[in-house]
Amino acid sequence: MNTPDASSTTPRGRKHRGRRFAAALGAVAIGVVGVGSATSTATAADRPNIRVAMVGEIDSLNPFIAILASSTALLAYQYEPLVQFAASDNAVAPGMADSWETSDDAKTWTFKLDPDAKWSDDEPITSEDVVWTIEAIKENDALKQAYGALLENIDTVSAPDDTTVVMELSAPQASNPGVELPIVPEHVWSTIDDPAAYPNDSDTVGSGPFIITKYSKTGGVELKANDNYREGAPKVGGVIYVPFKNSDASVQALKTGEVDIAADLTPAQYKALESVDNITAIAGTGRRYTAIAINPGAMDSAGQPMGDGNPVLQDPIVRQAIVRAIDSSTLLDKVMQGLGDPATAEIPPTYPLYHWNASELPYSFDPAAANKLLDDAGYTKGADGIRVDKSGNPIQLRLMGRSTDPTHQQMVDYIKPWLKDIGIGITSEMKAPAQVNDDSTLGNYDLYFTGWGMGPDPDFQMSINLCSSRPNADGTGATSESNWCSPEFDEMYAKQHAELDQEKRSEYVVEAQKLIYNAAVNNVLYYQKSLQAYRSDRFGDFVRQPEGEGVILGQNGPWGLYSATPIESTTSGGESGGGANPLWWIIGGVVVIGVVTVIVVSRRRGASADNKE
Amino acid sequence: MADTMVASGIPAADIDEPPRASSWLRYAATKAGGALVSLIMVVVLGFFAFRILPGDPVRSMADGRRVSAEQMEILRQQLGLDQPLLSQFWRYLTDLVQGNLGFSYTFNEPVAQLIGDRLGPTLLLTGTAAALSVVLGLWLGQRAAWKHGSMFDKVQTGIALTFWSVPTFWLGLLLLLFFAGTLGWFPTGGIVTAGANNEGFAAFLDVLHHLALPALTMTAVVYAQYLLVMRASLLEEMTSDYLTTARAKGLREDKVRRRHAVPNALLPTVTLIFLTLGGLIGGAVTVETVFSWPGLGFLTFQALSAPDFPVLQGTFVVFSAIVILMNFIADLVYRVLDPRLRTA
């Protein structure tokens, strides 16, 4: 405080400043208490809002542009696609379209809309809205960012009448072309000069259960209930997305009641929340798999070798032995604390239509069998227990993981001794995620931890295993899951791609997964659960997807928050905002006043000492 | 300046008159020139340094989504990433000269606007923390020096050093868990209560309520440096002859400290304050992440993962410009504060 300037003020002046300081502090103390009590009454409306912890950034609220998960999850509540995925089992279900028909050659798709459907501003929803949305994307490269690839196979789209949409595809397609794409209201968007630059963050019009009313980069996103929603108005008044930048804080906010529901919990957070009163923690079946990719000898799109994978891995026997040596159920228990489902191949059981349901796998954990495979193939062990390859070099492999994911290092600690047991040496390297992406794209790895989260239709996930999905030599171009190419797989992919019969298509997709499995290029370890928790003293009756065992947030559809039902008895008591117990406010106030008193007294004393001089 | 000395023949230190404007200008111009050169280096470095980062921005934008190779190519063209590096650099320079920091890959917004929206919260947080830590550090520092070796000195220096050595995120999380989680006195994150839509004085108090914990965390971690420098420089002054003179005049000990010793001891401290202010802004990254503070630090952190080159370049230039500006101000302030330098 004693700056050169201060030393020139008179004792009287200093005394006054001390009082002003005290007065200001006092005002703050009273005011802060005021904030706590003011917010506890403000949100007690007839239909309370549900507050959702949002860990992650909003890139855009423009449905043509937004690609970050937080944004697309939020927009799924605002815009319905023609066809969506059922809450019960993720099968295709009516969305904006009541029904649809497919021509026998799977090239003409006809959708029927509900004649009474309305946008949130009471304008009718018509087939013109659908045609405008699709044509806008097809005609404008700037609008292709989010859904461009989804529409590549749509040749023409037309509206013979107000409730009919006809899509002509350029090639047969079994997956419904009406899924995912959010349909926007033509009467709003056609009047915008540059739709790609439109922020779409206030006064928005939508068809889903909630409509964005406000977006503040500092204060989150607010949505209000859409009473015109096809399935009826939601039971809550709206949704408020509260931004967080780390999940520990969002867990604390759930405990204090600042938010009502939080997702993306770690196993430790989930376990801790399980025992907290008034909070229900759920472990929903996840949409992600975790795997170890094994470099089969990566090739670029021209069929030229790329990357520096160990040539010994080009022998499928070695890859199969590695798969047999890894005990994925132990990894699931120890690393994920059991919060996952045992895996077969890529597609998790949350998508029962396409999941490969097998109790016994061809290359299940069996070190003895793995050793025998390698012995029989002529890979003999050296004096140090490490086998040598055909050119006499010890088999030393690199296992790459992401430095940002602690489970990768944990898994390495288990996997190293397991592979040592079958005579394969492992060195691990933890790298930045972007570096892992670069290295894996270019084939610069032997083994690496990978994983994909996927939507309900398997076509895309399968397509990244096609020979044509291999990247260019410089890493640009298409995306490949495992840098693998098999004509047999390509054939199976083509069959499922055009098969309209659900049962047959499911069968083909499972067969395709078996081909990947048998090649031992992508050893799927487990499907991690999606861990979420909500305030059961405030909301209940959430619909999970799939039914009973799935998630509430992050669904393929709006069911989770749409079904949220306020619990009447406690809505006035547990309101959020300040979230503090009044007693603590009083104690806090007393502390502040105490501090002020001490300051004032000490300043008085200092001042009187000066006066005596 | 040397001319005047020779012409007048009087030792410069004895001249007690305002410095000549011309010498001031020359001094300021030299320092400004230096700052400008640094800034140009930063601009060049900012472009090339981030290109070394791993990761393909287009591939990471397509990560986990259905995006065809053709579409990725379109995106690459739209972002200008298909151009040779030097022509990208030229475009960056010409844009920058016109005050255009580019367009973010991830956020559908100009970088200048992205930074503008987040600069306010960052300045509020670092400004508050800087003010608190300067006041606290200097006050405790001079008290500790004056009673050096006492219990007060040992305890205060010990506490400050403990906080100084604690990892910022860890302290932040502890405060968050205790004061926001267990006690519920403060909100768990953000700068305003989402959905409350406060206005006027209520909004001000709401921000203050949210600011308390992050500002406290930053203050706790950084005030030690001010305390220690203030303590050291006052200790140096305490053996000076002029203090004996002051005491001989009959001044009370308290007044000797405040009127004579402290102003002189402030010299090196004030320079340090300005030098560290710029660094504080960069150091806000962890605090912003722990307390979900919507500032520049987290934006940079997020841009790194893509990598979102325009955002990285923009924040790098802005952060560096602040540091350079603060150093420049430190140069000027030091000259104002220290009469010996005015004539040097």
Can you walk through the features of this model?
The complex is a heterodimer of chains A (613) and B (344). With 613 residues, chain A is of the alpha+beta class. In chain A, 32% of the residues lie in helices and 19% in strands. Chain A has 2 domains: 44-260 and 538-566, D-Maltodextrin-Binding Protein, domain 2 (3-Layer(aba) Sandwich), CATH 3.40.190.10; 288-529, Dipeptide-binding Protein, domain 3 (Roll). In chain A, the strands form 6 sheets. A 6-stranded mixed β-sheet of chain A has the order 14-18-13-17-15-16. Chain A has a 4-stranded mixed β-sheet with strand order 1-10-9-8, covered by helices on one side. In chain A, strand 4 and strand 5 form a beta hairpin. In chain A, helix 7 runs antiparallel to helix 9 (367-376) and helix 13 packs antiparallel against helix 14. The longest helix of chain A is centred in the N-terminal third of the chain and has 32 residues, at 11-42. Chain B is mainly α. Chain B has a domain at 109-341: MetI-like fold (Orthogonal Bundle). Chain B has 14 helices and no strands. In chain B, helix 10 packs across helix 11. Residues 1-16 of chain B have low confidence and may be disordered. Chain B: Residues 119-334 form the ABC transmembrane type-1 domain. Chain B: This is Peptide/nickel transport system permease protein. Chain B: It is found in: Cell membrane. Chain B: Keywords: Cell membrane, Membrane, Transmembrane, Transmembrane helix, Transport.
Keywords:
heterodimer, A: 613 residues, alpha+beta, D-Maltodextrin-Binding Protein, domain 2, Dipeptide-binding Protein, domain 3, 2 domains, 21 strands, disordered N terminus, disordered C terminus, B: 344 residues, mainly alpha, MetI-like fold, MetI-like (chain B), cell membrane (chain B), Peptide/nickel transport system permease protein (chain B), membrane (chain B)
